[in-house]
């Protein structure tokens, strides 16, 4: 009995020793190695590597905004010129004829006016492509025989820019909506089962829709022309003539008037002073009497 017990204890000890023996295939055991010069850099790259890019799930659609179209601008130029009296009308006619007859300028004459009262003034409003604005300005500044010894002077010049991108987009949308509504009415008018009242109502609505389309197209054409063509407002004025006048030029002419005016002012002062003359005479008499009596007293003092 004792021998069997000893055998059982020895077997149990062997089993326990086998359980404590490490197994390289055990997945729960973590083997750690100290970094060396050869494996330190790769380990650092694995530890501090940036996270991978985000990839959305297949059920989520991410879209990017489409690039905007180029901005649209309208430009308006102002040019004010001063010149001699005889050159205003000639330069006005040259500029107007060039805009109307010179085909290479592609010029549109919006308005033109000239007035001659005490001085001569002229106004021109034209629309030109961008590349023709500079040649037209050069034409206006070209020297004319009527300029005489002095050339034309640029007294003011400016350019104003206005963004038309949103306005053009709104006009395009309005035109598209008007055409869609008109087309739907035309398709509705082609039905064969319409009553007379329905035909009349559709015809009335179709007329109004066509008017809306025409109005939208006219506004769009005006906007396109405003963007494509640059407007140039030109003012032609007569240069003021400076006349040097001597100080003695009007002396003899105005001497009589000046003498009469001065005489009238002097007489008016005398008339204004007449009511005070008696009082002034009385005060003078009293003052003279007082002075005389004082002198007598000094010469003949009172004996008492």
Task: Note the topology.
Blueprint: H1 2-20, H2 40-48, E1 73-83, H3 85-101, E2 108-116, E3 120-129, H4 130-141, E4 153-163, H5 165-189, H6 196-228, E5 229-238, H7 251-273, H8 277-299
Parallel strand pairs: 1-5
Antiparallel strand pairs: 1-4, 2-3, 3-5
Count the E strands. Answer: 5
User: What is the number of helical segments per DSSP (H or I, 4+ residues)?
Assistant: 8
Q: Order of strands in the sheet with the most strands? A: 2-3-5-1-4
Listing every helix as H and every strand as E from the N terminus to the C terminus, the arrangement reads: HHEHEEHEHHEHH
Helix content: 40-55%
Class by SSE composition: alpha+beta
Which spans of ≥5 residues are poorly predicted at pLDDT below 50?
A: 15-51, 54-69
Task: Please tell me what the overall shape is.
Answer: elongated
Over the alpha carbons, how many angstroms does the gyration radius reach? 54 Å
Strand content: 15-25%
Oligomeric nature of the chains: single chain
Can you give the mean pLDDT? 76
Q: End-to-end span in angstroms? A: 188 Å
Largest sheet: 5 strands, mixed
């Amino acid at each position: 009995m004792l021998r069997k017990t000893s055998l059982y204890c020895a077997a149990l000890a062997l089993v326990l020793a086998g359980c404590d023996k490490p197994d390289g295939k055990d997945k729960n055991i973590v083997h750690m190695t100290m970094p060396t010069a050869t494996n330190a850099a790769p380990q650092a790259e694995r530890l501090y590597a940036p996270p991978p890019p985000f990839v959305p799930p297949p059920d989520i659609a991410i879209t990017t905004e489409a690039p905007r179209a180029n901005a649209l601008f309208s430009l308006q130029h102002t040019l004010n010129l001063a010149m001699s009296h005889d050159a205003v009308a000639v330069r006005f006619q040259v500029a107007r004829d060039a805009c109307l007859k010179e085909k290479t300028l592609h010029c549109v004459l919006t308005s033109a006016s000239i007035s001659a009262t005490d001085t001569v003034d002229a106004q021109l409003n034209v629309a030109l492509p961008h590349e023709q604005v500079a040649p037209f300005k050069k034409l206006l500044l070209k020297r004319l025989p009527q300029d005489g010894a002095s050339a034309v002077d640029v007294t003011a010049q400016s350019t104003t820019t206005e963004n038309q991108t949103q306005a053009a987009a709104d006009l395009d949308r309005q035109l598209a909506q008007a055409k869609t509504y008109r087309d739907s009415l035309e398709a509705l008018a082609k039905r064969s089962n319409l009553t007379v009242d329905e035909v009349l109502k559709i015809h009335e609505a179709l007329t109004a829709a066509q008017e809306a389309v025409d109005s939208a197209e006219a506004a769009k054409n005006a906007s396109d022309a405003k963007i494509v063509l640059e407007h140039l407002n030109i003012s032609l004025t007569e240069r003021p003539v400076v006349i040097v006048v001597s100080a003695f030029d009007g002396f003899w002419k105005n001497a009589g008037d000046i003498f009469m005016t001065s005489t009238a002012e002097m007489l008016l002062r005398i008339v204004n002073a007449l009511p005070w003359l008696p009082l002034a005479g009385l005060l003078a008499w009293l003052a003279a009497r007082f002075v005389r009596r004082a002198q007598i007293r000094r010469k003949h003092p009172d004996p008492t």
